Prior knowledge:
This protein is of the alpha+beta class and 160 residues long.
Amino acid sequence: MPGTRKLGRTTDHRRAMLRGLVTYLFENGKVETTVTRAKEVRAMAEKMITIAKEGSLHSRRQVLAYVTKEDVVKKLFDEIAPKYQDVKGGYTRIIKTGARRGDAAEMAIIELVEPKAAEEKSVKKTVAKAAKKTASTKKAAPAKEEAPKAEEATAEAAAE
């Protein structure tokens, strides 16, 4: 287990709880839980995705030893892991949602990040920056052309 947080539970209870949360995360794409649990779930979920990216029978069996449902393992290997094939980490995101009403525990949503959307945003930003640069050079070029016209106008006025 990557983390050292005990979460107020025995080892077996903690392991079972985290296995359940990781399975639910892969099944539904996001989970609402406490911040400390979310941090532990993130560590295990990212480890499982990294193992699943390998795609071998051995890696499938390793993930099956942790994830509690076979159909979720199939989804992990067939849908989730291929999305992150070119990504080295950061498959999940933790969003803090505020305090829980009953005991004021700090809550968070942990969700899987869409890697394609992040790449598209960066491409759009670079395209927008390039457009701004070309627009600014186009604005600068007409200003240079206007300057000779102004000089011609003053020369014509002086000639008259």
